[in-house]
Amino acid sequence: MPYTNLEVRTDGTFSPCCLSTYSYKKEDGTTYNIETDSVTEVWESADRIKHANAIDNSEIATCNHCWNIEKTQGYSKRIFESDKRGSVINDTPRSLDIKFNNVCNLKCVICSPINSSLWYSDYEKLKGYKFDNSKYKWIHHVDVYDKFKIYLQHAELLEFYGGEPLLIKNHYDILKHCVDSGISKDQKIRTNTNGTVKITDELLDTYSKFKYVGLNWSIDSVIKEEFEYQRYPANFDNVISNLQYVIQNKPDSVALSITYTVNAMNILSIGEMIKFVKTHKLFLHLNLLNWPNFLNFNILPKSQIVNYVSSIDDADVLYNGITLDTIKQYHESDNRDYLAGKMKDYLTSLDAIRKTDFKKTFPKLKEFLDDY
Ligand code: SF4
Questions:
Q1: pLDDT digits (tens, 9 = 90+) for 318-337
Q2: Which are the contacts of 28, defined by CB distance < 8 A and separation ≥ 6?
Q3: Which of 57, 309, 317, 349 holds its CA 20 to 30 A away from the CA of 91?
C-alpha cells in the first residue's frame, strides 16, 4: 500500500506491496534500488506520492490483483491494509516488507529463481540459458541495519517473506535489534515460512517479545503427494511435524495460519485443507495465485470449480481475508482456459527435469489437460 507500506524486493527495487507489479522510479525513469538509494529518497519521491494519491481514485494497472478481488466482493489487501493502518499519507513507512534475498531450500512449481536460489539449475534446463542472479545480492553490499534503523522505530508492522526468511541471518538480526531496543512490544510481524526449517525455542522466545506475530505456513495441500509435487523437494511429514511443534509451544503473541496459494494444481483438493484447519483451529489465508498466470486456477472449467467449491462445508473456518465465496465469484469473472496448453507444456517439461509426474499426482488436472 503506497501510503503506509514499502516493499524491498529480492533484487533491491522498491514496490508499494508484494502484490503490486510496480517498481518506484526516479524522474529520469530509472528504478530506485536499495544498493544506491536511501529509504527516505524513495519514500519522499514524487512517484511514491503520486501512487499514494492515485490508489483510491483510479484502477492502477499494476494493482490489478486487488481490483479483481474487489470486483467479486472480496476483501483485497488494499482494503485490508487501509482498515488496519489507515489511508493517510505518512512521513515514514508504517509497515516494511523486506525481502533480503532469494535464498531458499525449495523450488516450488509456482515459484521462480527470482524468489528461490534453488530454482537456478531447473531454470537453465527449462530455458536453455542461465538465470542472471547478479541482481539478487544486495544483502552482501548493504548494511541492512544502517539502512533501516531510523525506520524501524516508526514501523508498526514488519513483514518477512521469501526466499525462506528462516534461512536468512539478517532476518534474525533485525528481530534482535527490535527486541534489544525495546520497540518490539509495540510491533507486529508477519512472516511466511515454507515449514521445512524447525523453529527453535530461541526464536519462539524472541517472538514472545513482540506485540503480535502472524506466522504463516505455506502449505499448498495436505495430501502428501500433492504437497511434495508443488513444494519440491520438501518432505510433507517433516513440515507437519515442525508445525505441530509450534502449535504446542508457541507463545500467546503468535497467531498461526496456513497460507494456501490457490492454483490449478490444488483448487480441487481445497476441501481437505478446510478440514485440516478446522481440526487444528488454524487461520486460513487463501492466496489467489497471481503469477505465473498459466497456473491460475481459473484455467479449469468454471462448472467444475463452482460445483466442487459449493460442496465444501466451510462453516466455522477462521478465514484470514479471502473465502471460498470469493473463489467462486472470482472464477466467474475471469476465465483463462486459453492458457491451458501453456500449463501442460510447463508441467510436462518440469516433470522431465525432476522425474515427477503431474498426471499421476493430479489425475483430475490430467483429465482436463488431455484435451490440450
Ligand atoms: S518456499 Fe517460497 S521462495 Fe521458496 S521456492 Fe517455495 S515459493 Fe519460492
A1: 998 889 988 887 755 566 78
A2: none
A3: 57
